[in-house]
Amino acid sequence: MSNINILGITPGSVIEEAFFPLITNAKIIIGASRHLDILPTCSAKKIKFPSPFDDLFEILSQFYEHEVLILATGDPNFYGVADWLRQKFPQRLQRVYPGISSMQLAFAKANLAWQDANFISLHGRPISKLSESILANNIYGILTDSKNTPSKIAQQLVELGFAEAEMIVVSAIGYENETIEQGFTTDFVSKSDFHALNIVIVQTGSCATKQFFIPGIDDEEFFCNKGMGDGLLTKKPIRLNIIAALAPQPGEIAWDIGAGCGGVCIEWAKFGKPKQLFAIEQREDVTECLQQNIEKFALQDTIVSIHAEASECLHSLPHPDKVFIGGSGDHLKAILDIAWQQLKPQGRLVLTSVTESTRSIIFDFCRNKSALWTEIQTSTQWFPHEKMKLQKRPVLIVQLDKD
What is the CATH number of domain 4-100? Predict the structure, then answer.
C-alpha cells in the first residue's frame, strides 16, 4: 500500500520550490488542469480530476501501490478533498500541505474580519441548504458551484426575507481577471456573467420573514391534513415536552414512529441536529403533509419520510439512538418490541398515550423496566375567551433508557 499526499495551492499562485521533492517522488499526480499546467518538469503520470468526482475512488484503487500526489485549491481541509480521502482511504492519506484558502483570500479582498463568520458549502449541495443555515444579523462565507451561482443564491436570500442583505462576490481570486462586486442581494438576482471560480460573502442584517431560533415553532406554520396547524399534529406545548424527554444530541440516528404531519420530527431535526431521522407514517394524505413540511423547513438532507406501517419496515432501518412513538395504529405492542430490540445500548425510547388501551399496553411493556411517567394537561386559547377549557384527556409521556 502506497501513500497519498495532498498539496494545497493558493489560488493564483505558483508551486513553491519547497514542494518540488514531493512532486519528484510522486508516481501519479492528480488535479485540475490549471494545477497540472503549472507543475515543474517531472516524470509522474498526470491525471485530471474525473467527472463525476466520485470516480476518483476507482482511479486511486488502480494505483494502490503507487505514491500519489493530489493537487487541490487552497486548504484541502476546508470543505476540500482531504475529508473525502479520510473517508475513502483512511490508511493511505499521509499528509496534507495546505495553501491559503480561497475563502480566506475573499474575506481579505473584501476587507472583512472572518473570525466570527459562518461558512456554508453549496458545492454539490441543494440550494435549500441556505434556508436551513441563514440567520439574521450574521456574516456568511458561501462556496458556490456551477448550479448554485451567486444569482441563484441571491434569489434564495430574497425569498427568505433578506432582500436588503449586503452581498459581495469575489471572482477569479488571485488571478489577473479577479473582480470584486458589492451590493444588495436584489442587485445580483438577474446577473449571470460571473466567473466560474467565485466566493459569496453575505452580511444579513435584519430579516423580513419569521425565523425559528429555538424549539417552539407555532402550530400554524405546519402543513396539516385539515389545514395549516390542524390535523395529525402534536401541538406545541406537548411537542416541547417530548423534545425535552428525548434530549437530542447531534449526530444521532433517530426514529419518529407515527410521525403524523411532522411536528415532532421537524423540531427534532431542526434543533437536535441528528445525523439521520426516519419519520414513519402509514396514512398517505398525512405523509404528503409530512413531506411538505420537510421541504418547507429545508430538512431533506436530514429527514427520510417513509410511508409504511411501522412494524413492517423498522427492521430495515439503521439501529437508532433515540426513538419516539407518537402513533401506532393497532400495532403498539409489536412496534414497542421491535423498537426496543433495535434501540442501541444507552439509547432512549419516548412514547405518548391518550387512551386507556394504549396505557395498558405501555404499562405491561414497562413492568420490568425503569420508566419515567409524566402526565400533561394543557389548554391553549386566545383571550378574551368566555371559558377556558382544558383538553379532555391528559397526555402521558413515557421515557425509557436502555442499559
Answer: 3.40.1010.10
